[in-house]
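Protocol step 4 of 5: obtain the predicted structure for the target chain.
Materials: sequence only (see below). No template structures provided, no constraints applied. The aim of this step is simply to have a reference model before the mutagenesis design in step 5. Sequence pasted as it appears in the construct record:
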Amino acid sequence: MTVVGIGADGWTGLSAAAQELIDGAPVVLGGARHLAMLPETPDQIRETWPSPLVEGLPALMEKFDGHEVVALASGDPLVSGIATTLVEVLGRDSVVVVPALSSVALARARMRWAAETTEVVTLVGRDPHLVARSLAPGLRLLVLSSDGSTPGEVAGLLTAAGYGASPMTVLSDLGSATESRTDGPAATWGAEPSPALNVIAVELVSSGARPLGFVAGLPEDAFEHDGQITKRDVRASALARLAPVPGQLLWDVGAGAGSVGIEWLRAHPTCRAIAIEAREDRAERIGRNAATLGVPALRVIPGSAPEALEGLDAPHAIFIGGGATAPGLLDACWDVLVPGGRLVVHGVTLETEALLAQQYARHGGELTRLHVEHAAPIGTFTGWTPARAVMQWAVSKPDVVAE
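Step 4 output (structure tokens):
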């Protein structure tokens, strides 16, 4: 299959080589909008993508098995485009990509923004809360919209997060004869929908919002919680040992407020995490925290471990912030952890400390006691108030299990 990118200017904007590819193909697939851009070609089969796409692709591929197929996509097919899905389904060797100028490149040109000063966030088919992960004063964002309602949703999120003063520019139908531009601050953005094909350019300006860093250790009040939260100093220590790696999966077992899983996801856009929490009210709270902090993809599973762990994808890292003494939990986590995976467990009770000491003797790793004290008033003076000491066991599973 050959995937050809086509811009908003349609057939006339394509190179002669791209036109020849499309014109000579016995089968052309694409969205209705893209197919309508093509001139008539006798005996050419044209078919729109199935809906839902991923579920319908295997039958479509089987239907045209053995045919040369050209698929149409917007701009660069590998920028939030159909080519990404086709490569995943068919494999890299079965797909050839012929890109056109992407909407990202066009938007940067219109804004005169250098690529190295701009972050791209795609909301195509995704939760708009993803924008919240990238909020930082002075940062430039190009947001790929899902549809005409996306600019209003983004403006609302920016305003709620304290970035309502940020100037927004909506660039619509880039590269076409109907290209348009709308400017205004996020806080006063109207409810009127924009054209469906648009890119949002935002230069972030804080209206008193506290910047949230991209390293581990967000303050506790960045999260909604009922006191059941891994405190920032020990959380930073845990995440340093969990070592978030792009694309890898974390289990946050007994997640409480979800702080460890959320910070794991904030480390890189491709990180994945599952939060397991027995209490339903806390599980709901985790979902709200994940959305607020820009990682709505956090999967939350209400239930008690180890039973709730059955059937989940094997993790590269596991954090157990409480409940480590549940029968069979540590052994179940150790067994399912992938070779080379990391396990970090916290304990504050004598019973948990005894168990972690046994596991340390059995598997090795690091055994650490963390003592944190905070300055607080003592009458008219200031003294140290100690928090409860936390024992931390951190261990990596051998890459090769000994016989």
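Step 4 remarks: Residues 104-203 form a domain with the Methyltransferase, Cobalt-precorrin-4 Transmethylase; Domain 2 fold (CATH 3.30.950.10). The first strand starts at residue 2 and ends at 6.
Proceed to step 5.
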